[in-house]
Design a protein that fits this description.
This protein has 202 residues and is of the alpha+beta class. It has helices spanning 32-49, 56-65, 72-77, 79-91, 94-97, 163-177, and strands spanning 2-8, 11-17, 21-23, 67-71, 109-113, 125-130, 135-141, 147-152, 186-189, 192-195. It has one domain (2-195). The protein starts with a strand and ends in a 7-residue tail after the last strand.
């Protein structure tokens, strides 16, 4: 997985590939802190900035028929595009990451480029989504199958949940099913190691 940064603090352009342990070194005021903070901020908020959208027709089919199947290969094939959109949204949040004025980041760019072995879908997945006093729908995936099954757990006439909530909930599950593997890689700077955690496409 390659990280590309442009126009961030003292960094005009930089690229680095994340390994099992990534060490960023250099002279003072060359952008080491900017690079590590930008990466840490992205990993901290990837769940909210990566857009995985379920087609409206599939959500309506779920509400009308009670069950749908989604092929995760569709999302895997679009993973880089989903990540590009997420990086654009994250770039808008850099002022919050660094607690600074937005003027400092108007030209900034942050991009993640996937490598072939970065995506490893879960073989088996099972999750039930619910409200306060009711289980609403289940999401499951069987081993050696690219299909994710979403099933309503309430009678169809009793479903009052908004389609956008269903869409968002399924999207969250898909991010967990299709993780981008970081293999607990770390970023090392000035004697400290920040562990990275696995993150999804969407």
């Amino acid at each position: 997985m390659k990280i590309s940064i442009k126009e961030l603090g003292p960094i005009k352009q930089a690229e680095f590939t994340l390994g099992d342990l990534t060490i960023i070194c250099g002279e003072n005021n060359t952008g080491k802190t900017y690079a590590t903070y930008a990466l840490h901020g992205f990993l901290a908020c990837w769940g909210t900035v990566l857009p995985i959208v379920v087609p409206h027709k599939d959500v309506q089919k779920l509400l009308n028929e009670g069950s749908i199947e989604l092929n995760i290969q569709t999302y895997i094939d679009n993973a880089q595009s989903i990540l590009n959109d997420g990086c654009k949204e994250y770039t808008k949040l850099l002022q919050n990451v660094f607690s600074s004025s937005n003027k400092l980041f108007r030209e900034s760019q942050f991009r993640v480029v996937l490598e072939p072995d970065d995506i490893r879908p879960l073989q088996v997945f099972e999750r039930t989504m619910g409200a306060v006093n009711a289980q609403l729908f289940s999401i499951s995936k069987k081993a050696d199958s690219p299909l994710v099954t979403v099933s309503l757990l309430l009678e169809q006439g009793k479903v009052k949940i908004q389609p956008d909530i269903i869409n968002r909930s399924i999207g969250i599950a898909l991010k967990d099913i299709i993780p981008v593997i970081c293999r607990q890689r770390g970023t090392h700077r000035r004697g400290t190691v920040q562990k990275r955690t696995p993150f999804c496409v969407h």
